[in-house]
Design a protein that fits this description.
Blueprint lengths: L1 H53 L1
Amino acid sequence: MIFAYWMSNWAMQLLLWLTVGVVTIVVVLAVWLILTAFGMKHRQSQRKTSNWRRN
């Protein structure tokens, strides 16, 4: 009984840590993608304004 309970508890902890890890990775990737896209848009807008000033 105790061993089975410990095994189920260990499995639950493993599942919890896996969920936390996956959520953390997904959040980090989402933030990184948003920042990268925002940075690219910002750079493109800067290029457009510099080209417009030259012309």
